[in-house]
Amino acid sequence: MSLFNNKKIIVIGDRDGVPGPAMEECLKSTNSEVVYSSTECFV
Amino acid sequence: MDLENQKRVKDFAEKYGAENLVVILGAAEGEAAGLAAETVTAGDPTFAGPLTGVQLGLSVYHCCEPQFKEAVDEDIYEDQIGMMEMVLDLDEIIEEMTDIRDEFCKYC
Questions:
Q1: Residue contact A17–B77, C-beta within 8 A
Q2: How far is CA B6 from CA A32, A36, B36, in A?
Q3: Residue A36's closest chain B neighbor by CA?
Q4: Average pLDDT over chain B, rounded to whole?
Q5: Would you call B84 and A10 a contact, using CB atoms and an 8 Å cutoff?
Q6: Global pTM value
Q7: Is the ipTM, as predicted for this complex, more than 0.90?
């Protein structure tokens, strides 16, 4: 049912928005695997 | 999207298959979210990085879009993202992301 079922996830966070680790934490509740996570800085 | 991340996205698409990948963005503004989403679907619009001319068509969502919220645990979302969600311009972000997905996404 989940959009992320069995998917490999790439997380691109934003230092001024939502950082990568916050999204990673949320994705732990899904049946998916975070294969890469980073937090960009656009300044 | 910075060049290192573009290279990573390209490498993962080759390794796992574009249909198995989902990109989640946390950009602070609709424009930045749209540019990043365009980069992983239609190719780098700035013609600077490894994804220039590479149309991966990946599934891509912003973490404050309803699709992401509905897929994750509500309490964890509130703890981790709820505060930022209140200060972001969600209408702008959702409009940008929806436009890009409708036009370029192959696996949504």
A1: no
A2: 21, 12, 9
A3: B8
A4: 97
A5: no
A6: 0.96
A7: yes
